[in-house]
Amino acid sequence: MNHLQQDKADFKSGFAAIAGAPNAGKSTLLNRILGRKISITSKKPQTTRDRILGICNRAGSQMIFLDTPGIHRPRGLLNEKIVEQAFRAIKDVDIILFIKDMSSRQTGDETVVIDQLKKEKKKVILALNKIDLVKKTEVYRTVDRFRNLADFAACVPVSAEKGTQVPELMDEIEKILPPGPPLFPEDTLTDASLKFLSGEMVREKIFRLTGMEIPYSSAVTVDAFEEEAKLVHIHATIHVARKSQKGILLGKQGGMIKQIGAKARRDIEKMTGKRVFLELFVRVTRDWNKSARHLDEMGY
Known about the structure:
Layout: E1 12-20, H1 26-34, E2 52-58, E3 61-67, H2 77-91, E4 95-101, H3 108-120, E5 123-129, H4 136-147, E6 154-157, H5 166-176, H6 194-209, E7 218-227, E8 231-240, H7 243-250, H8 255-272, E9 275-284, H9 292-297
Parallel strand pairs: 1-3, 1-4, 4-5, 5-6, 8-9
Antiparallel strand pairs: 2-3, 7-8
Helix pairs in contact: 6-8
């Protein structure tokens, strides 16, 4: 008998959305909670475009987290679609985990988040993230300020990067989880396919290695994913919105695309436990981020 089958009468399970402004550390927190990397991260805002589900099993509970795209005032069709995904995720959960970036002075997007949370009327836990980057007095002031903005079930200062007080945050979430049986098998970490996660690993390297508008004007589609006993074959296309961006992404003598491929391949090999053959193509799909048809074809 595994621990998820014990004490069924006292067991808790439910969905919690990790919500917040762009670059608040939502994906870093999910990876920290799971002890595995399933959600891509970078220092650039709006790295996350899709909701990512991650499952954390504890002795008395199963917490199912939804890492959501950063909520902001959208400009352009792609950003509108991204924010819509976050709003949909918030509506479908039992608990909302609102992540506040303590190192950021920008409050406009946070106001958008709080306004949406008030509409949902769900239990909300406030996590003050990146406390390692500010003074303790700033944390105390922020706690007082946010208490006046909304009725939070709990407020926990954390550092997702360092793991500080993440166990305490988990305890607070578990307290307000609804009673119920586990909803996923104990050995399930996510509902995302290896094919999808591989495409995300490529996109992460684009965000980390390129600058200017390239990360926000590129999308990745995995055209073929064939898994053998010891080898995975992946063919993926990186779409860019303009011809000039293709040259930047390829780099001098193909240097940039080779670097993106090499770093993504290492992460995919770590994820799959197999050797990976990764072939990347760059294609100009003109103004894909402004086209409803292209966005739909790419899954946005």
